[in-house]
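COURSE: Structural Biology Practicum
ASSIGNMENT: Worksheet 4, Part C
STUDENT ID: 0417
INSTRUCTIONS: Below are two proteins. For each, the amino acid sequence is given first, followed by its structure token string. Answer the questions at the end about the second protein only.

PROTEIN I
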Amino acid sequence: MSAHPSLLSNTAQRSYQGDFVAVLEQLYRERTLTPYAAGCTIPLRVNEVLIVCRGVVQLYTIQQDGSETLLGLAGPSMPIGLPLTIVDPYWATALTDVDVLPLAITEVESSPLLMAGICRHMMLRLQQSEAWLAIAGKRLVADRLRHLLLLIAQEFGQVEPCGVRVPVRLTHHQLATAIGTTRVTVTRLLKDFKNEGWLQTQQRYLIVQFEQLRESSWNRMYL
């Protein structure tokens, strides 16, 4: 019986992760990555998994009234694709410039190392999904937005002297759909957060202060 992932040592996890990265790097050399500019829709196929090699991808669905619901964000080494979801319709858009590596599902199934690597990153996607559900259950809109920004900063943030920069430019409308509120409310709350001192804007990117991240309930994810 295999050990539960939480029981694996940090050394074993790093080795495990390194093997997967090595396989991806070998595939990079042998194949041409597919690039998408920020804002472009990424085609998804029934029998294909895409590995995000660079950038951040927005995953969302469209409701009957035409509104969008943000389902999650996928960064480097994360798998995305129709074989990994039952949501319909299911769309992917490049939030930044993106490179993806397409893999046929049959190829993934025939490679234990690819399967293991994808499984590990699907676990991270599951953690993100559960975190988003926990955020959605918060009663106050301000709490939902605050925790969503902190979660995104901890997953995708880049450490700088002034704080952690969020390299993903989500519009106020996108943030509103993610937490079930209006664009006007998000705009007002962002101003409030800046007045509180833990959030600032630099060249249109959000900067989150270190102290706010340390106090966040998601801080165990920030390694």
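PROTEIN II
(use this one for the questions)
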Amino acid sequence: MNRMRDDMTEDAEWQWHTDGAERAGAPFPQPADGAAAVAILVFGQMALGGALSFFSNISRHFPPRTWGPPDMAAQALASVLVLGLLVAYFRAVRGASLRDMGLWSHGIGRDALRGLGYAVAAFVLGAAVTIAFWAVVLIAAQAFGVPGEAVEKFLVKSSAREQETARGVMNVIGILVAVCAAPFIEELVFRGVLFRGLRRAVSFKISAAVSAAVFTALHFYVAGAPMIFVMGLAAAWTVERRRSIMPALFMHAFWNLRVFAVLWRDRL
């Protein structure tokens, strides 16, 4: 009974925000807004990250070496600038606020607990899907005459490269970026704008699959692609269910924190 009452309250809150946007004559987001958000994220991070990394390599004073490796500090600053660019663009062009992008809370504690539960469930499901997916790929490869050892070697190499990247950011600023900045920006883009924009035009299944596929592709991690895809689907379901990106944001943060917890354990 209490759960039904909570859900009705959350739906009423969401309807209030939706009605407000429609009264203002600014239905947001649309599919085109999702494409714009992804473009700003990708090209903005590449351009600003590259420029700041170059500047950090020729400067002895910025970023301060106490922040962490110069390139990591530069990428962190680039992420903050991209977030500002994203918010400024949609504010200027579409009159949209962070709340219009889905950033509103049912209660931080409640959203955090939900995010933790969703992260655990998504990880278990994602691990099962990943194992099953690569088992099928291995069987199919062997059926077409591709040695199983070649597939296994490829997967090991892909996983090792990803772990090496994670070890490279095992510092304070790297963890803050991965656990705080990255989930915030990515959930805002992929679920808050892209997924919700697609939902205005197509079904939940298509919107979730497309947003999760783009999210997965931009991580460039082949071996872990099935797991990342499942995480993207789970985040989309969470936004569909809760009408807010906050639970998905916490889920994403706990998901990334899991990687550092495993690496930290291996260092002990």
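ANSWER KEY EXCERPT:
Q1: Confidence is low (pLDDT under 50) at residues 18-24.
Q2: The radius of gyration is 20 Å.
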